[in-house]
Amino acid sequence: MAHDVTTTVPARAGASERRLAVLLAMAMFVLVVDTSIMNVSISAVVHDLGTTVSGVQSAIALEALVSAAFILIGSKVGDLIGRKRAYVLGLLGYGVGALAMAFAQSLTAIIIFWAIVGGLGASLLLPAMQSLIHGNFTGAAQKKAYALVGAAAAIAAAVGPLLGGFITTYLSWRVAFLFEDLVILVVLSGIKLVQDAPYTGPRHIDLFGAALSVLGMGGVVLGILVWQEGGDYVLALILIGLVALVALAYWLVRSKQRGMFTLLDPDLFKSNGFRIGVSQQLLQQIGLGGLMIALPIYLQMVLEYNAMQAGLSLAPLSLTMFAVAILAGKKTGNRRPASLVRAGFALLAAGTIILIAVVPRASSGWALVAPLVIAGSGLGLLVSQLNNYTLGPISEERVSEGAGVNSAAGSFGLSFGLAFAGAIMLATLSFTFTNLANASTVLRPAEQKQVAHTLEHDAQVISTTQLEQLLAHKPQSTQDEIVRINTKARHRALQVALLVPLLAALAGLANAFRMVKLPDPAPSAATGGTDWA
Question: Cα–Cα distance between 19 and 190 in angstroms, integer?
Answer without folding.
Answer: 8
